[in-house]
Amino acid sequence: MKVPRFSTKAESHTYRSWGMSIIGMTASPEAFLAREAEMCYAIMAHVTDYDVWHVTESPVTVEMVIQTLNKNTEIAQEAIRSLVRNIQPERACNCDSALSTALITDPKVIPAETLEKLRPLVGKYYK
Q: I want to staple 41 with a disulfide (CB 3.0 to 4.6 A). Which of 34, 35, 45, 127 is the partner?
């Protein structure tokens, strides 16, 4: 189950000092996993609240976030309908070969059992 992860004030101030103005709570793991699985991946992000550094706004609650998410549902559904209507079957990216330069372990040192488990993901590179 995925739940929102709100930043601590220290994290929020660190992000701001790095010049970040939008903080995603959960997107990075999925993006990394999709890349490793050589899948095309895009994020549809919706701003739901102010971060904890914004002291002139009320503290954010899960209820406030869910209320905003519910408002955004119709927009997200229309965006998906539009995407499906307009999607092109041809790929203009290298997602399907993202691991071609990422795998550096010599297959001779990988146990056969491990290679077999990984075959769905890396089989085309480790033959």
A: 34
